[in-house]
Records
---
Amino acid sequence: MKRILIVCLMLFSAIVVAQNALRWEGAPVDEGTVLNLGTTLADDTLSSAGSEWNNSTNLDMLGWFELTTDSGNLFSAAVTQTGATVVLYRIQSMDGTTYDNEPATADIAEFPHLRVGDFPIATEAENKPIIIGPFPLPPSKQKYLVYNDTGQTMTLNWEVNLYTNNPEIQ
């Protein structure tokens, strides 16, 4: 009888735990623009770092990145290169003051640990936002850069926006 009671309690506990689920705590939060230099970006070129985004207080766990333009086309001409991408990189400051070395275009292959992800570019130049993610976000101050590997120049008004969210057990 004692064994039956223990088995029943174990099954009840498993059912209660199974009712909990990992869900989003709400809609993604628009953290704003993390990279907008107000300049064009030639093919085969790495941008300079954008403004600092501080995740050491919010401690957001996941982020989605959006590559977009506020007017016109994202590229100066239609992208015809198959497999064209705009690659997103992150440099961070774990101590709050000192950042990773900002790589140069010629050295970018030596910094794979800074790579966040790739924005896949379709063979067109329309004004459509491209969203990638989710990606884990470290609890630090951080800056973002992009590398243009599309075969075309990115137009003047491109930017990268960040949206964050956290999972929670409900």
---
Amino acid sequence: MSNLAQLIKNDKAYKQLRETTETITASVDHDKILREVKTLHNDRPSRNLYKIAMEPSKLFIASAQDMSHRSRMSELKVTLFQRMKSLEKIIEETEVHIGSKFQEEIRAKAKTAHERKTLIAKFLQTPLGALKDLSYSIEVIDIYIKDIDQASYSLQRCVEVVKMTVERKAQGL
């Protein structure tokens, strides 16, 4: 291991970054979260409304269940988002810290700004990978939430149609 690598790996700020990354990584089971979100999505009654008669009670249940599932997905998203922002902050701080504290050593190994940035990025691979994992999980949850929002709009239209039908029957039309 080069002298620069040893200096950075022994640096207090870098150690804090590694600890934070390990803590966040250990606290997030992406597979479990994504399985839960998929299960929530697949278990929504609104996904099967086309198979049943459009009864007001069924529409109400589907709408209520969608709200409940959307709420849980949002809760999971917020948890991931908070961890992502914490990790982003410490990565940025550590990157600046390494760049300034080890400026001379880095300049000796990397001449151009791009080379210096690449050199520093090598020490941030694990935290940046964890950041990408968090971002991916958030994006997947966003897709499911968007689907629920679109289904909710369609449910509202169905409720209006049922309401009009009931009113017409009540008026004897």
